[in-house]
Design goal:
The protein is α+β, with helices and mostly antiparallel strands. The chain contains 9 helices and 7 strands. The strands form 2 sheets. It has a 5-stranded mixed sheet with strand order 3-2-6-5-7. A two-stranded antiparallel sheet has the order 1-4. The relative contact order is 0.21.
Length: about 280
């Protein structure tokens, strides 16, 4: 028996080709198309992109952005309190528990696309993403530096510095994958066919999104990392090898006094987005 046709491809095609249309709207149409085709894995992928990925979910590679680790420090100096000085750190300066959890210079972007679209609309700049457990690590790092004799410095924040351009790259990547999916579906449809059938949807999902259908099956989305640069503030040290015996920056008193001299260059407040 010939499988029934499914509907919604034309609406999805219009949505992905309109750069002014919300990507969330296109994903909702993809969700509906997956419903028409009874394709559970396609619906699952679209729903995760809409609602965001949980900590237990496998994160697609294009949602992992290279990002520098930073701490924000308050300095309690004689006669004054200097607040909000930001310093870049390496992974070797994190508490051991944080390193054991895999926290490094790669930021997981787990938010749903609508939230990412709001961030991307800010234009140039950066957004701070806090790793899970950041509050605990901040306390541990502050206690360690106090134990080393640097009682003047209190760490108040641990975060990734992620460029807004990188967030825009993630959204563009998702839109491109959806466009490729539509193109793959169209390529399987013979002349005169108005709507694809479930088999054509499944084939296109495998080709464009590496999503395999079938009851109880899992799916993986493999794609290149989205990369973007931000003028003058790119993280040049992300892939450099670490020294054999690195010392935390707060062990060097010159850094604290250098932070005071750098106050004139501290940027304005950047909205914080907490990754749970």
């Amino acid at each position: 028996m010939t499988p029934p046709d499914v509907q919604g491809l034309e609406q999805l095609e219009l949505a992905v080709l309109d750069d002014t249309a919300s990507l969330a709207s296109a994903l909702r149409r993809c969700l509906m198309l997956g419903g028409y085709a009874h394709h559970e894995e396609l619906r699952d992928w679209a729903l995760k992109e809409l609602q965001g990925y949980q900590a237990s979910d496998e994160l697609p590679s294009y949602r992992k952005l290279p990002a520098a680790l930073e701490v924000t420090v308050d300095l309690n100096l004689p006669g004054q309190i200097v607040r909000g000085n930001t310093r870049r750190i390496s992974t070797h300066m994190l508490p051991q528990h944080a390193r054991d959890r895999g926290i490094g210079e790669s930021a997981p972007i787990r938010q749903g696309v609508r939230e990412l679209e709001v961030i991307a609309a800010r234009g140039n700049g950066a957004v701070r993403l806090s790793p899970p457990g950041a509050a605990e690590y901040v306390i541990q790092m502050t206690e360690q530096q106090h134990a080393e004799g640097n009682e003047a410095a209190d760490i108040t924040s641990l975060h990734w510095d992620v460029s807004v351009a990188g967030i825009q790259g993630v959204l563009d990547h998702i839109r491109t994958r959806l466009t490729q999916f539509v193109a793959e579906v169209r390529a399987t449809m013979p002349p005169g066919q108005q709507n694809p059938n479930p088999g054509q949807i499944d084939s296109a999902a495998q080709q464009a999104l590496n999503i395999t259908g079938g009851n109880g099956s899992t799916f993986h989305i493999v794609a290149p990392n989205a990369k973007a640069e931000r003028g003058g503030t790119a993280s040049a040290n992300i892939n450099e090898p670490a020294a054999a015996t690195p010392q935390p920056w707060w062990h060097r008193s010159s850094v604290i006094w250098g932070a005071v001299a750098a106050l004139g260059t501290i940027a304005g407040v950047i909205a914080t987005v907490v990754v749970k």
